[in-house]
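Running this now, will post back.
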Amino acid sequence: MSAAIPPMPSEVSQPGLSEPQRIINIFTAPSKTFEDIRRNASWWVPWVIGGIFAAVSLTLFNNKADLEQLMRQQIASSPAQSQAFDGLSKEQQNQRIAIGVKISRVLPYVLPIFSLLGGLVIAALLMAAFNFIHEAAVPYKRSLAILFYAGLPSIISAVLAIVTLSMATDMEGRNPRNLVATNPAYFMDYQNTSKFLYGMAGSLDVITIWIIVLLGIGFKVNSAKPKLSTGTAIVTVAVLYMIWRLTASGLGWV
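Update: finished.
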């Protein structure tokens, strides 16, 4: 009886990447991670890692900053909020500030939940945009995995924020949403600069641009339409991001 003929090398399925390999490749060879997402669209590991780093940096900020003073500064920087705040009694003002401080103290612990909820929405919007505009046919779970893996460079911002906050002695005027000198807005006066100008300057962030490029690569690699180029995919993400930044800056959400 003859022995079974072994399969040809091309017929042997290649093993998938481990989670550590996926994470390392995002920084060194992102296409490999995004190709592996076609095999397994798991997304929870980068979500957990990102949530932990963000929570640690925000906790450190809360411990270093005078949150009551920060609340008053943020209210004063918004004409609409300031007018409404000035119309309150002294007791009501103190109550509002106290509630804001309590929310700030709790926020690091619930931040991963908010990042998940935000990720679910953003992944749906990206999937809809690519599937409608480019006929990419990217499933929702893959879109979610692309989003969270592409967001991993944000841990670099978190690490830099942790280092910066650890050495900081004066926290006055610092914006908790912009703690690292990776964009022009960091060097601007948060309290006295136009919120629209500050927000648009903040959009020119090195880490954010990196994430946009990774998202473009991810959707290109996972697209069912071969003609979709990496450049077109990156531009699509960039346009969607700028629409959001224009809206948020115009509303003063910076």
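Residues 42-250 form one domain. More later if anyone needs it.
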